[in-house]
Design a protein that fits this description.
Elements: H1 7-33, H2 35-39, H3 43-68, H4 73-104, H5 115-127, H6 142-183, E1 188-191, H7 199-212, H8 220-233, H9 235-246, H10 253-269, H11 276-286, E2 290-294, E3 300-302, E4 319-328, E5 331-339
Parallel strand pairs: 2-4
Antiparallel strand pairs: 1-5, 2-3, 4-5
Family: Belongs to the peptidase C85 family.
GO molecular function: cysteine-type deubiquitinase activity
Protein name: OTU domain-containing protein 6B
């Protein structure tokens, strides 16, 4: 199913306009409702709030870019330009607002005409480094020099993160486009799963609910416990694969078994990511055929021995997942794959 070329663009533009109005509205609301509190805001409280507002804007930028990465190539280009222009305007307004608020506390270069002093103060504020109102002619202490150096390093780190984030977004767009071209002819689409470390199990839970036509017979936590219990019971089948990526030279058999047991405990009681080992356990626990689609790698089929038990060739009788290498900066991610009409 395809949308008209202008529909998704209109949606993004409307979202951007609403975000802009909200950004403009929030400062006035704070001033009108909490004017007395603002007068009492300390320097550190102000800098902390500035950092939060900058972080919120950065998160909003990522969300808007994700929303713009849909549709035809021409649509994506138009939406990307619209997002960049809007984010640039929001960023400029936020910087201007922060500069005025810092000036109200005396951190301004207007009196001396020294613009560099103003910029240094803003960099330190964004990096979370305490600033002082020492006279320009005063010699900086060693402690201040160290703070200045940390502020500069933090600012450079933020620039690197932004550059890396841009690469991640680009790789994610390419990966998602390839996956979309693969799923569309099959009448399938990706159902986004929360990226909280439980994504594999939540995706399987979503699939079980879809197959049952109601709620899943198992929660994601129960699926974790089932996978861990199966791996313990069949340790001889899983231990070689576990050791292939976790081998420590000179380790005794007892220590290897203990490490594998610790790993199983993590699977059932923490948010450690799930992968091939856990999928290998789940196919036997659930006695289900699992199909894993990817935009970066060839598709993977697991549990073929259970495929014939369904007495049907329909893909809807299998658990269908998608693997994303570039979904987030933290690492791999799993989503649920569902019929297009359901999403």
């Amino acid at each position: 199913m395809h949308c008209f070329p202008t529909l998704s663009l209109i949606i993004v533009m409307v979202a951007l306009m609403e975000d802009a109005r909200e950004m403009e509205r929030k400062p006035s609301e704070v001033i009108s409702d909490n004017e007395s509190e603002k007068k009492q805001e300390t320097r550190d409280e102000m800098l902390s709030r500035h950092r939060k507002e900058i972080s919120q804007l950065q998160k909003k930028e990522i969300e808007l870019k994700k929303a713009a990465a849909r549709g035809s190539k021409a649509e994506q280009k138009a939406k990307k330009k619209q997002v960049e222009e809007e984010v640039s305007q929001l960023s400029a307004k936020l910087k201007e607002k922060h500069a005025k608020e810092l000036a109200s506390l005396g951190y301004s270069g207007n009196a001396s005409g020294n613009e560099k002093s103003n910029i240094d103060i803003m960099v330190k504020a964004i990096a979370g480094v305490t600033v002082t109102s020492q006279p320009d002619h005063s010699k900086a202490s060693k402690a201040q020099q160290r703070r200045d150096k940390r502020a500069q390093q933090e600012a450079e780190r933020e620039q690197r993160i932004e550059a890396e984030q841009g690469d991640i977004i680009s790789d994610r767009m390419i990966e998602n486009k390839k996956l979309e071209r693969k799923l569309e002819p099959l009448g399938l689409t990706v159902n986004e799963i929360k990226p909280d470390g439980h994504c594999l199990y939540r995706a399987v839970e979503n699939q079980l609910a879809l197959l049952s036509g109601g709620s899943s017979p198992y929660t994601y936590q129960e699926l974790r416990e089932m996978a861990a219990a199966y791996m313990r019971k069949h340790a001889s089948d899983f231990l070689p694969f576990y050791l292939s990526e976790n081998l420590v030279e000179g380790a005794s058999d007892d220590s290897l078994s203990e490490r594998f047991e610790n790993y199983c405990r993590e699977v059932e009681s923490t948010a450690v990511w799930g992968g091939q080992l856990e999928l290998g356990a789940l196919i036997h626990c659930l006695r289900k055929h699992i199909m894993i689609f990817s935009g970066s790698f060839p598709d993977v089929e697991m549990g073929k021995e259970y495929k014939s038990n369904d007495n049907t060739s329909s893909p809807n009788s299998s658990i269908m997942l998608s693997y994303h290498k570039h979904a987030f900066g933290l690492g791999e991610h799993y989503n649920s794959v569902v019929p297009n009409v359901i999403k």
